[in-house]
Design brief:
Strand content: 15-25%
CATH class of the largest domain: Alpha Beta
Distance between the termini: 64 Å
Helix content: 40-55%
Number of helices: 19
Shape: globular
Number of strands: 18
Structural class: alpha/beta
Largest sheet: 7 strands, mixed
Radius of gyration: 27 Å
CATH architecture of the largest domain: 3-Layer(aba) Sandwich
Strand order of the largest sheet: 5-13-12-11-10-6-9
């Protein structure tokens, strides 16, 4: 009698589904996902058999199934604890929201809202009135519009105001942001024609004047703030006020793409000056675009403020509907902007609270962590370090901080276990030590982080 084929020794999908070890996985993940994962595990086993390996046992298949599901679940969107010291961490969702913003989102999400309903008149109303009203009050602009991100804001404004015409910009401002999105590409998509002036490090007002003499179809001058890098040394560029005067003398508009969207003066916290939206409006910019989820500290948004006739044109364009914000983001943004209007942004907006936290306060917190981790037997100490703002804001600028540093035999392995914790904990490795920066860990996350650290490093839960 011939020996049974090794492929026939593999259990069926139904048999694995009925295994006792799969029952809790069905509850957690659902039947559809489990069936798909089992088929993938069995396909993987068949490939191994073809390569000359013996058929795996059912126990081995179930272990592979559980590992596959665990890895897959880590790819789904979920909250994490940011212990990296990067305040606006692009890969970790940028700005965390204030309690008021989170409450506003929850309140709007749980039922109906007056998203496009005028409660006073009792009829259809405009979307985003509260956000736009707050933006004009805070920035001094005549009008405002909120869309889904700053790239959309820039694309929309250029499409409406400059399609088929020339836009003049300094060569040193042709920036590339994350994901390989470049200012020239956005401009081309809008239908505007790029006219670059000056050199990488030096652009003079006369460069703009000469461009206006050569090109008769210029729609506007554009300044793109270099928010994610700096050019230092032998550099020159005209101030925004001078560009505004030149544009207005020629009957043109000046558009300012600020990117980071600072509404507070960064010098107050020992950082370099970051141009604020209010400064751009005061300098004479007709249109200013900026982000909602960077230095502003709110949900993802692209904000456009400026002159009312121009905003009215932008608002009526069909593309404005395609890039508009949803009710959830609008609720969070409105609550965030209210912090600025009340003068409480430093205390209530997490990004600014983290930036404003004195190094001594971070040190006291780090020392408290060290005492608790040492009780668990971990080799840990407090060392001096630096936090960064991140998110393409204030490049090269750092804040003094104090780090919790662990000298572990395998810091990479412990960091990997931290990422598999629930919720995942994201740390960094410096000089072969695993380090945690308390500056970016929210107070309510502290206990979870310390327990996760002990589990990852020792395999035991911390007591007390």
């Amino acid at each position: 009698m011939s020996e049974q084929s090794p492929f026939r020794q593999l259990p069926s999908v139904d048999r694995l589904l009925q295994a006792p070890a799969v029952r809790p996985l069905l509850v957690e993940h659902g039947r559809v996902r489990i069936v798909e994962a089992i088929r993938q595990v069995l396909d993987q086993a068949r490939e191994a058999i073809r390569a000359g390996q013996p058929p795996p046992s059912q126990e081995a298949l179930l272990a592979t199934l559980e590992e596959r599901l665990s890895r897959e679940s880590l790819r789904w969107l979920q909250p994490v604890i940011n212990a990296t010291g990067v305040i606006i961490h692009t890969n970790l969702g940028r700005a965390p929201l204030s309690p008021a913003a989170r409450q506003a989102i929850a309140a709007v999400a749980q039922g109906y809202s007056n998203l496009e309903y005028d409660l006073v008149a009792g009829r259809r109303g405009g979307r985003g009135y509260g956000v736009e009203r707050l933006l004009t009050q805070i920035t001094g602009a005549e009008a405002a519009l909120a869309v889904n991100n700053n790239a959309s804001a820039v694309l929309l404004a250029l499409t409406v105001l400059a399609a088929g015409r020339a836009v003049v910009i300094s060569r040193g401002q042709l920036v590339e942001i994350g994901g390989r999105f470049r200012i020239p590409d956005v401009m081309a998509q809008s239908g505007a024609r790029l006219v670059e002036v000056g050199t990488t490090n030096r652009t003079h007002l006369d460069d703009y004047r000469r461009a206006l003499e050569v090109h008769e179809d210029v729609a506007l001058l554009l300044r793109a703030h270099r928010s994610n890098f700096r050019i230092i040394g032998f550099t020159t560029e005209p101030p925004l006020e001078a560009l505004a005067r030149l544009a207005h003398e020629r009957g043109l508009w000046l558009m300012d793409d600020l990117g980071s969207g600072a509404l507070l003066e960064t010098e107050r916290f020992g950082l370099a000056h970051e141009p604020t939206v209010q400064e751009s409006i005061a300098a004479g910019a007709d249109i200013v675009c900026f982000s909602g989820d960077k230095l502003l500290g709110g949900p993802q948004a692209g904000l456009i403020v400026g002159r009312k006739p121009l905003l009215d044109r932008i608002r009526r364009h069909p593309l404005a509907r395609a890039v508009r914000m949803d009710k959830i983001a609008l609720a969070g943004l409105q609550a965030t902007l209210e912090h600025y209007l009340r003068g409480e942004a430093v205390e209530q907006v997490p990004v600014w609270r983290m930036i404003a936290t004195p190094a001594d306060e971070v040190r006291r917190r780090a020392q408290r962590w060290v005492r608790r981790l040492r009780r668990a037997g971990l080799p840990v100490q407090v060392i001096a370090g630096c936090s960064t703002v991140g998110g393409g804001s204030l490049p090269g600028e750092t804040l003094p901080t104090w780090l919790v540093a662990l000298a572990l035999p395998s810091p990479d392995a412990v960091a990997a276990r931290l990422r598999r914790h629930h919720p995942p904990i994201i740390a960094r490795i410096e000089e072969e030590r695993l380090v945690l920066d308390p500056r970016t860990v929210l107070p309510e996350q502290e206990r979870t982080l310390l327990e996760g650290m002990v589990e990852a490093a020792t395999g035991e839960r911390m007591r007390g």
